[in-house]
Amino acid sequence: MPAASGTAELRLVAVVTAAGKSERFEGGKKELASLGGKSVLDHALAPFLELEGLFFVVITAPRGGIEAIRSALSPTTFEGLKGRLSIVEGGGSRRDSVRLGLERVAQAVPDTSDLIVLVHDGARPWASAELCRRVSLAAARLGAAIPVVPLTDTPKRIGPSGVVLGHPPRASLASAQTPQGFRFDPLLAAHVKAAEEGMDCTDDAELWARYAGAISWVEGEVENRKVTYKADLGPASQGFDAPMRDPMALPFRIGSGWDLHRLSPGRRLMLGGLEIPSQAGEVAHSDGDVLLHAIIDAFLGAAALGDIGSHFPPTDPRWKDADSKDLARSAAALVAGAGWEGVNLDCTVILEKPRLGPHRDAIRASIARIFGMDLAAVSVKAKTKEGVDATGEGRAIEAYATVLMAGLPRPDPGSASPP
After folding, report:
1. For the ranges 51-55, 320-324, 327-331, which has the lowest average pLDDT?
2. Which domains does the chain have, with CATH numbers?
């Protein structure tokens, strides 16, 4: 199943903040900076595309900067959020920007009584869909939830005169991250009250604690760090995200995949997660999506994680008639967990009929959404065998896939659990 399943019963919205001045980033706006071929902001939005139950996203932009924010979003993100995205100008502070984002949600959503809102920093490009899921579920149960990670340095309370004033115990402290989750109506009311009273805050949890009530925490992710300085991007600005575990290893790998299925009248023809009109479709234990199966093998092969049969064996009844999109998302999560991300993907489908030309762009967009890749990085070609062998005679369908992988950031293996 997808990493972010389990939120379908919730009504989720997200407010992603990108209205700051990036004064410490040393030139340029950090959310617009390139990270592995996409903007930091585009990476920050990616986990929300996987959330079941999400139906609206607001991005806050600097004054006069809506078009710059829009230009930083990939076609994959626009396609994934089609009809569910709004970009609004923020305010003079983070508090004001979040409030304006919440007010835009209230304008767009007729009934906000049971909404859960996730507030996320547009400069946090490494949050996972699984973290968003855990925060959403905790907020739905308890009203408010934030992800936290343990402090790694010993904290000190200091004064302006250069003297250390106290030594708070590290075990009782943690660093807060985003996304932070809240019941929508109380959070909006708290923001309105804070604006009236002139109370500022560095995150929404502080504001909730003052005006709404208690806050729960869930375990955060060490890799979910915030970009503040240009150095925070590390080697990512050169085209990959972080050094590999072996510093002598190249940061790229190539994987290839191939699959073939017999065709049978009356079966659905599934390609890249889409049903293609056809008189015959694939015969398989799952839904038979030969193209996704080839891509899964390419992804797993690049990461040296076996093949599709080792993870989703056809002898296992759990995968009977399984949706190959779910298998693909699970495989992509495994590959990401091993430290790899797809850079570009080239696929070839061999089929006598129907013609795939009219469906090519839709198939590419579907694959890009499933694997979290930029649409421009996904290629799909269609060929025939002109009557040669079973495929050429129209009795089978084949697919080939080749993927280039780049290394992802690696979390610190020595990090401790939250308090």
Report:
1. 320-324
2. 11-237 (3.90.550.10), 252-407 (3.30.1330.50)
